[in-house]
Amino acid sequence: KIKVYLETEEPVYILISDGEREKSRLKKEGNYFSYYIPEVNEDFRYMVMCGDKRTEWFCVRVVEETIIKKLIIWHIYPTYTGKKNKKEEKTLSAIRTLYGTKIKLEAVFNNCVGDTYLIFSDGKVLKNKGKSEKKTFQFIVKEPVLFQFRYYDFLRKRYKKTDVEKIEVIYDSAPFVEFKSPGKDLEAKGGEKIPLCVKATDDFGLKNLRIRFHKGKGEISEKDPVVYEVDINGKKEIELTTVLKIPEKLNTVISYYAECFDICVPSNLGRSSVYYIYPLKLWKYGKEKRAEDQMEGGKEKLSEIKKKMEELEFKEKVGKLEVLNDKKSVPITK
Known about the structure:
The chain is mainly β.
């Protein structure tokens, strides 16, 4: 809507030039004259005329609604990962990156905007002041969070907000630890030395490996004694051999397991399965007991089979007697 404030009783006209020149009369509305254009899709020029007076040419430029055209994202990964930094360009959408990554985020607008804010759902707000088509922010990703841009739109002459998007966090996996040997429950006598072989792997690197044991089959604990420990210094895979010496007086079950930390900050902890070492007497007793149970079970099954066979034989005999009873003799009458 074009408004012209002019004190006159003469008719006021507008001349529009958009390739062709078209002259139209303005409508009188109170203390001004107006001309309404229902839809504008391309640039045009116009001037206002009244009698022998006229204005200069004015230009109307059609522009797109102010939006973020794209995001340019630099992923600066933690040093321990050994990963090369990555740059990506995308439309305004979710961001997915590794835990601890430093993000440099540049929002590129199609028009100049004023002060712009990057607002996170955890309450954190980053600000970029001034007039520009590009707004840059930096932050470190440590947890999943939602984010949204708020910016001053000079075309609308007000602040606007984008849709809410999310930052997804990829967490580093814990190391995988396993015993290659013996990797099973076993029997031993006091003072015996048992060779162990343990393997550990991690996607970014290992820091430290320990072998622990405790008496009985209870819950494992950080207080369990460490019988072997080695620093690994960032290798992604390692296989180690050592010897586990059994106490001289072994009169109860011993549990043993391996655990390994990776080089992530903070470190992730991976553990192997827990295995048991039985004193020789308990092991043999256990075997004998299982054998006795199996024998008893076998005797019971044999007894049941014999009983069923006897029942079948009895039913067969009864059946024969019933058949014989049905064949009754018929008396001869004179």
